[in-house]
Design goal:
This protein has helices spanning 2-9, 75-174, 190-193, 206-214, 250-269, 281-296, 315-329, 345-351, 361-369; strands at residues 26-27, 30-31, 201-203, 219-223, 236-240, 305-311, 335-338, 355-358, 374-376. It is of the alpha/beta class. β6, α7 and β7 form a beta-alpha-beta unit. α8 crosses α9. The longest helix has 100 residues, at 75-174.
Length: 395
Amino acid sequence: MAHERSRFGFRPNTVQDVWHLPENTKIGKFATGAMCSSDESRFKLSTCDRVWRCRGERSAACNILQHDRFGSGSVTNLWTKVQRGKAKRGKAQRGKAQRGKAQRGKAQRGKAQRGKAQRGKAQRGKAKRGKAQRGKAQRGKAQRGKAQRGKAQRGKAQRGKAQRGKAQRGKAQRDLFIERFCMTGGSSPIGYLKAWQTNLYLSADAEKVREALSEGIAAATMFMSNKLTEVSQTQLRVAFDGDAVLFSDESERIFKAQGLDGFFQHERDNEDVLLDRGPLKDFLASLGKLQKKFYAKGHRLDCPIRTYLVTARSAASSGIRALKTLRAWGLETDEALFLAGAPKGPMLEKIRPHIYFDDQMFHVEGAAEMGTVAAHVPYGIAQKHPHKKSLNTGK
């Protein structure tokens, strides 16, 4: 190889005669141009002598001596063939190496693709299993919810059945004459009240009571006392508060806004102006109609129904307007008690009504403490501004 490089190193500056090869022919590691030249015009296998000549000068005949001890052909041709064979083998080896590299790359890409496909398949399988598990969990949850709702509904139905049985037994024990009876299965009965022309709706459910009041039906929330007093067995006694029960909450609003002095001044200025109706006005009117039937038969003193007005108003300053309003409506109460701010509990204990109606929980709780069954009427401004114990007047 060193000899080859030394021969080709002088090519551009020496004679351009000996070899004429196709353009870009590759000899060994050296590529020729249109012409490849050599300094060897005489070849020997025994010695290596060189004859140098100038550009364009031909070799003398005496300097040309052919040696062909190895048969036909020449050393130049042999050397060229050797170099071309070597080039072909190198090209074949490089092609083989490139094909091997391509095959290895293809194998690696195939392996990577198969791995990616396997991972994708595993992930899809995992996702499917997760989806199946979530679906199973959701179905289980839905089934448990359905079972719980069914259990709750059965329990509700059983309690309703028990309550109806209790109501029927109570009716039988007390010998009550009840013709109309409605069992709603736990749904709201408010829609039926107007159709039945209900005069009074009592319930322990405050929301249903508010719903009834919004429909214009007299209603109140029941509160039972732990200390029950003995009541009359021959006479029904019903006691009412005035403002926001029989009357509107107009005066109560004045009291909340202007205080006691403003309330008294307002009542004096409007003494001849009737109060607006309150939520239980129609119930008092219904009781009055029943009373008049007994009055017509001469049972005024021993009438089995007796009504009471128990109000914190004072008789001298603000009670007159309340009485004038009742008379203008054609209504009356058998007794009217103007307490001028005094507690109502002790007075109710003496009256011993079967039920007492008030719009303020302060008075309802006070009545219950004295053993009176009280009912709260959730109406008027007092629901937004609860009554304080220190302010026991003006209503």
